[in-house]
Structure formats: C-alpha cells, structure tokens
C-alpha cells in the first residue's frame, strides 16, 4: 500500500514522517492554499530527509503553466507532479513529454459517477490517477470524503490513489470498501493546515498495518505498506 502524506511545510516534520515509513510526501505549490510552500522551502525539506528514506516527493499544482511546473520540479528536486485542477488529458500529455522522468499524477475531484467515466480518458497520458472529493469552492485539502462504496470495482486502467477526508479512524473502512493501490491524506493527519500531527500519522500507519495483517493473515507489514511510484512507463 502506497501512503502519501500531503501538505508538508516543515523540514523536521517531513523528516519524521519519512521515518515513519510513508512512501511519498506532498508539497502544495498552490499560492492560494494555507498549505502553500515555496520551492526553496520544499528544497530545504527534501535536503533534510534521511538519506536512507526512499520517499517520493510530490509537488501539487492547480492549472499551473508548464514552465512554472518545470521550474519548481528543478528547484525543489521533486520526483512527481500532481495536477489537481482542471487539466485536460492533452495538458497532462504535455507535462509528461516535458518531464519524462517525473511521475505524473492526475487528480479528479469526484462530483458523481460521471466523473469516474473520465478516468479512462486520462489513463494513457498519466502514471497514476488520484480521486479526491468534490468541493464547490476549494480544490483540495477539504477533509470531505468520497462515496467509497461507489469505488468498489473502480479500475481506471492505471494505478490509482484514494484521497479525500481519510483519517486514522476511517482508513480501514475506506480500504475495505474501495481497493486503491495507495492512499493520500492531508487534513486528516494535521493540527492545523500545514502543521502535521506525527501521532496521527503514526496511528494511520498502525491502522494500515493492522488491516494488512488481517487481510493476509500474516504478521509482516512490508507487503502492505511501502510501495513507491509505479514503474509503468517503460
Ligand atoms: O491541501 C491543499 O491545500 C490542496 C490545495 C490545492 C489542491 C490540492 C490540495 N490538497 C490535496 O487534497 C487531497 C485530500 O486532502 P484531505 O485529506 O481531504 O485534506 C490530497 O490529495 C491533497 O494533495
């Protein structure tokens, strides 16, 4: 199970969260968000990560120009880009061609079942799909949940991440209902926007490991936690 914790703003918290065994850290590159971090600050967080922590570094953008995305990737040493706005499949393809070695994640904000039908149009142009809850005024980090039952058989044709209002308390319920290859959390593991609660991240990892043990009948958590970006582009 790939676990991405998004909205990291502080080097010490990025480092501590990486040491808890998450697969990816997310950085909000959207100036209007209370979780915004400037590229130089992301770089400082990345440089503070323990060298042994193999953690993906994801920049989150909303309808940003390609040149801006390229600049931030270079300055901040990102390994992945998450497009969280109204980017089209063609727009995703342009980012993919400009940044061929960077994982491309496209977020769809799910308003109803019709949004899920769009997924197949994106799959050929991206590495990973992410489903977040729809909010009329905000792009993300809202804490609103999806209808997980609707996602029971969801298969977009590429790996997908479940986001939207996940917490240590509801993650097992969500993962029994839907079957993503990974999850993404922001507000469910923080004290206030951008200030992560390490205790909640620890509880989250415990809840996922417990579910993995229950489902496999094993005592090892490694099979269930820790997958990094999909190697599906060769
Ligand atoms: O977190 C933000 O402020 C944000 C701003 C703009 C686009 C995306 C943003 N966050 C993404 O929101 C989802 C889920 O958040 P939550 O767990 O419901 O709080 C996650 O994918 C973040 O990357």
TrEMBL record:
Annotated region described as Disordered, given as residue ranges: 211-234
SUPFAM superfamilies named among the record's database cross-references: Ribulose-phoshate binding barrel
Gene3D superfamilies, sorted: Aldolase class I
Name of protein: N-(5'-phosphoribosyl)anthranilate isomerase
Organism whose genome encodes this protein: Thermoleptolyngbya sichuanensis A183
GO molecular function list: phosphoribosylanthranilate isomerase activity
EC class: isomerase
BP-aspect Gene Ontology terms: L-tryptophan biosynthetic process
EC number(s) reported in the record: 5.3.1.24
Associated pathway: Amino-acid biosynthesis; L-tryptophan biosynthesis; L-tryptophan from chorismate: step 3/5
Keywords: Amino-acid biosynthesis, Aromatic amino acid biosynthesis, Isomerase, Tryptophan biosynthesis
Catalytic activity: N-(5-phospho-beta-D-ribosyl)anthranilate = 1-(2-carboxyphenylamino)-1-deoxy-D-ribulose 5-phosphate
Ranges for domain N-(5'phosphoribosyl) anthranilate isomerase (PRAI): 3-204
Pfam families listed in its UniProt record: PRAI
InterPro entries: Aldolase_TIM (IPR013785), PRAI_dom (IPR001240), RibuloseP-bd_barrel (IPR011060), TrpF_fam (IPR044643)
UniProt family annotation: Belongs to the TrpF family.
């Amino acid at each position: 199970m790939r676990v991405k914790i998004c909205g990291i703003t502080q080097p010490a918290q990025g480092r501590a969260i990486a040491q808890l065994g998450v697969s990816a850290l997310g950085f909000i590159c959207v100036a209007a968000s209370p979780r915004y971090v400037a590229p130089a600050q992301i770089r400082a967080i990345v440089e503070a990560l323990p060298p042994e922590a193999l953690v993906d570094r994801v920049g989150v953008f909303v309808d940003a120009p390609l040149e801006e995305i390229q600049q931030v990737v270079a300055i901040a040493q990102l390994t992945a880009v998450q497009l969280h706005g109204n980017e089209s499949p063609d727009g995703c393809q342009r980012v993919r061609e400009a940044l061929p070695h960077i994982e491309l994640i496209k977020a769809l904000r799910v308003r109803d079942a019709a949004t899920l039908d769009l997924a197949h149009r994106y799959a050929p142009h991206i590495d990973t799909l992410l489903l977040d809850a729809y909010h009329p005024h905000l792009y993300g980090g809202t804490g609103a949940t999806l209808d997980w039952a609707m996602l029971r058989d969801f298969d977009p044709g590429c790996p997908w991440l479940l986001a939207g209002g996940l917490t240590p308390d509801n993650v097992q319920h969500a993962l029994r209902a839907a079957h993503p290859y990974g999850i993404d959390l922001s507000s469910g593991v923080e004290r206030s926007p951008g200030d992560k609660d390490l205790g909640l991240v620890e509880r989250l990892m415990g809840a996922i490991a417990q579910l993995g043990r229950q489902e496999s009948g094993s005592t090892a958590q490694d099979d269930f936690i820790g997958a990094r970006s999909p190697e599906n582009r060769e």
